[in-house]
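Researcher: Here's a chain I'd like modeled. Treat it as a single chain, no partners, no ligands.
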Amino acid sequence: MTTQGNGSTPVAVRLDDLVVAHGSRTLVGPVSFELPCGAILGLQGPSGSGKSTTLRVLVGLLPPGLKVSGSVEVLGQDVCDRSVDLPALRARAVLVGQTPVVFPATILANAAFGLRHVVRAPREELRARAVAALREAGLWDEVGDRLDAPAEHLSVGQRQRLCLARALALDPELLLLDEPTSSLDPAATRTVEDAVTGLRGRTVLVVSHDRAQLARLCPDVVDLARAVDGPGA
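Model: Modeled as a single isolated chain. Structure tokens:
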């Protein structure tokens, strides 16, 4: 269940004065924003401004020793409430990291990896969902005829889209993309951006240091530097 924003607009993410600190040092915040369901929002800021940390807060993946204050609601759940089932939340709000990690298995097995651990369904259904995810991630035309090939043989750009497909196979309510093209060349970057812009109707939060990229991908952008330092920073 999602919360409601202004009027009756469903909200997937709501941060209210989020602060992440390590001892006396503030790593993030205070940051406040809302992400409506079905929207794509960008999160920008210089290196060290806490972009990736903010994403990890949303799915309860902060390392020990960091303290979170403020309000953090994701898909109607208070992430700071110790009673929240975080593994279940992570199946609904899926984080795709900036380093494309593939497993020593086939392309199809990689696409279905998370799905097999979350959904109990016949093999044919799992395959169909994995194939649909490869299509949505813009990878099918390049790998559809070699699904049994090792995923390690893919290029870095293809691996990134395979990781995106793995997340999409779960049919997440919220997709969190952390620097999705940071390790890619310009051609591969354009291909991944095309895949992201094709995610119409999904709720997506994109982190990037590249302001031009976020301008291409996201109608709205939150600037963490401004959130921390105030207007004019």
